[in-house]
Design a protein that fits this description.
This protein is of the alpha/beta class and about 375 residues long. The chain is built from 14 helices and 12 strands. It binds pyridoxal-5'-phosphate. Pyridoxal-5'-phosphate binds next to helix 3 and helix 4.
Length: about 375
């Protein structure tokens, strides 16, 4: 089966009792045992739940992975994955990552004795120089949030294998429709399903996809032991969203390309970040490893006053955090999505106060461009 078909049919969706075409929401905490020690496959919803299982199987198949796990939020998925490590372990991480991930690493995991080095993942030598005897994991995000930098996954998987590191990628921005990291040899895929996978801004959720039996066992153990799993209704919403992922991603991307082209030519815009632009430093790698360039566009405007004016004036683009929904959003990384990253680190990686990030929604693209045009005037 191809991607679009898997998105609609993967997992055990047959309702033997009534023939419901959509997966029922098994809103139950516990399941009746048939006999002592004998269940019908489920015993307690923290460990596993039938609605969650369909979502987990669907995401695993879309990513070409071994098994999938659904979490309460993207951060719950990340927190669980970080518990594969123990005190004294070292992680090399991309430096321009989601602000909440940076905060989890710097302010939470470090307190438990995990060490981190943040660096730009574009030079094999720089990466290998950062690897220590206690390095156990590499954390990647491509395209990165909010600068849309691209990481060469084939190179990273090669480095990870050579140095015996667990490679983890946050695939939230690309989604498996545009990028399948496991094909390149990445070990573990993480998602905030809050974004494109759900796609309608009506749920928060997360997911992890594994590639080996050992990782599957470890993640299942941690999910159950830590209780970070997703609720049945939330899983159902994400499942419904995934059914239209392919058509949505196509439209997000077509509109994002048109908007990036429009912004490049606009005199009020200093710089546009979009991997689909030929002069983007990661353009060639993105072309090679992705099926498209995605629906996110970032831009630097000329001065903070221009940023404030712009964000107050947009009518269709709403000023809000998050991304990947039908409604277009604009946000200011320095004070919103990346406020949890200290200013010094933000400046070092290039997240300036003049930067705005656009999540291109599913409205008519001419309306979106007209909205940007009037806001930039
Ligand atoms: C939003 C986001 C997260 C965190 O996910 P939540 O569902 O908000 O907890 C992680 N990574 C990326 C790239 C994100 O955009």
């Amino acid at each position: 089966m191809k991607f679009e078909t898997i998105a609609v049919h993967a997992g055990d969706r047959t309702d033997n009792r009534y023939g419901a075409i959509t997966v029922p929401i098994y809103q139950t905490s516990t399941f009746v045992f048939e006999d002592i020690g004998k269940t019908r496959g489920y015993d307690y919803s923290r460990s596993a739940n039938p609605t969650r299982k369909v979502l987990e199987d669907t995401i695993a198949r879309l990513e070409d992975g071994k098994a999938g796990f659904a979490f309460a939020t993207g951060m719950a998925a990340e927190t669980t994955v970080m518990h594969l490590l123990k005190a004294g372990d070292h992680v090399i991480s991309g430096d321009d990552i989601y602000g909440g991930t940076y905060r989890l690493f710097q302010s939470v995991m470090r307190e438990f004795g995990i060490e981190f080095t943040f660096l730009r993942m574009d030079s094999r030598k720089r990466i290998e120089d950062a690897i220590r005897p206690n390095t156990k994991m590499m954390w990647l995000e491509t395209p990165s949030n909010p600068l849309l930098n691209i990481i060469d996954l084939e190179m990273m998987a090669d480095i990870a294998r050579k140095h015996n590191l667990l490679s983890v990628i946050d695939n939230t921005f690309a989604t498996p429709y545009l990028l399948k990291p496991i094909e390149f040899g990445i070990d573990l895929v993480v998602h905030s399903t809050t974004k494109y996978l759900n796609g309608h801004c009506d749920v928060v959720g997360g997911a992890v996809v594994t590639t080996t039996d050992k990782l599957t066992e470890q993640v299942q153990f941690l999910l159950n032991a830590m209780g970070t799993c997703a609720a049945p209704f939330d899983c159902w919403l994400v499942l419904r969203g995934i059914e239209t992922l392919a058509v949505r991603m196509k439209q997000h991307e077509a509109s994002a390309r048109a908007i990036a082209d429009f912004l490049v030519k606009h005199p009020a815009v200093k710089r546009v970040y979009y991997p689909g632009l030929k002069d983007h430093p990661g353009h060639e790698i993105a072309k090679r490893q992705m099926k498209g360039f995605g629906g996110m566009v970032s831009a630097e405007l000329r001065g903070e006053a221009a940023v404030n004016r712009f964000m107050k004036r947009t009518r269709i683009f709403s000023l809000a955090e998050s991304l990947g929904g039908a409604a277009s959003l604009v946000e200011h990384p320095a004070t919103m999505s990346h406020a949890s990253m200290d200013k010094e680190h933000r400046q070092k990686v290039g997240i300036t106060d003049d930067l705005v990030r656009l999540s291109i929604g599913l409205e008519n693209v001419d309306d979106l461009i007209e909205d940007l045009e009037q806001a930039l005037k």
